[in-house]
Every structure is written in structure tokens, then in C-alpha cells.
């Protein structure tokens, strides 16, 4: 399981880094075309917005996989033994519930509700853009199930 988690972490980190590089290049292109060529690129702002949404969700998924997300650190670090294990499991179960209910279920409802609406410049379905929410929820769910298993097996 650790090998699978490591592969997922690497894939997400490289994908997110790639998206950030593309986003930076697009912003530089936008500045160049606007101020040097005096003919601003039309598509870049919309594409950067889409990439920002996707890289944010993928970056959040990566944070859950590497356990770098926000958590109740004070309680986690001050506890020992069974109490510490219970706090870890509780936090991970709450995150799992959020991923399933809000990201997967709610994200799918949102994405499917706007599938017929297209972006003004690129003509991409807004539903395809918003599908990153349930996709990210699935990734976080997988990570949280692995994290809960690690929590239960934790030796303190």
C-alpha cells in the first residue's frame, strides 16, 4: 500500500507542478502580448482560471496524501497512546466524510448541473471544469482510507 501511495503522491506532485508551470507561462504570455505587442491574448485569462481551479484541487489532494493538510495539531501532538490513535482516526474519518459528501456527491451534482453551459472564450463545458471536485474527492477518499489504516496500525 505504501508503494501505491508513493506513486499517487509522485503523480499528483508532478501534475500539479506541471500545471503551475503552464499557468505561469500563460500569465507571462498574457503580459507580453498586452504590453509588448499591444494585442492582448484573449484565451489566456480563461485558461489560467481553469488551471488554477484544477491545480488547487489537485494540490489539496496531494496535501491529504502527504498529511500536510490543516489539522488539530495541538491535540495530535499532546496526546499519547490510544487517545492519540483515536484523535488521528477521528480527524481522518471527518475528512473522509467531507470528501464523500461535499466533494464527490456535491461536486458531481454541481458539475452535472452546469454541463450544458460553455465558457465564453474557449467553449469548454463548465461541468468538465467542475468535475475536478468529485475527481479530487475520489483521490482524497483513497488517501483517507489508507491514512485510517495507518492510524489504526500506528504504534506509539
Automatic annotation (TrEMBL):
Major localization class: membrane
**Which GO biological process entries does UniProt record here?**
C4-dicarboxylate transport
Q: Per the UniProt entry, what species is this protein from, by scientific name?
A: Alkaliphilus peptidifermentans DSM 18978
Q: Which family does it belong to?
A: Belongs to the TRAP transporter small permease family.
Listed name of the protein: TRAP-type C4-dicarboxylate transport system, small permease component
Residues that span the membrane, as ranges? 12-32, 47-65, 86-108, 128-146
- Annotated GO MF terms: transmembrane transporter activity
Question: Where does it live in the cell?
Answer: Cell inner membrane
Its cellular-component GO annotations read: plasma membrane
Keywords, sorted A to Z: Cell inner membrane, Cell membrane, Membrane, Transmembrane, Transmembrane helix, Transport
Report the membrane topology from the UniProt record. Multi-pass membrane protein
Q: Domain Tripartite ATP-independent periplasmic transporters DctQ component, which positions?
A: 23-152
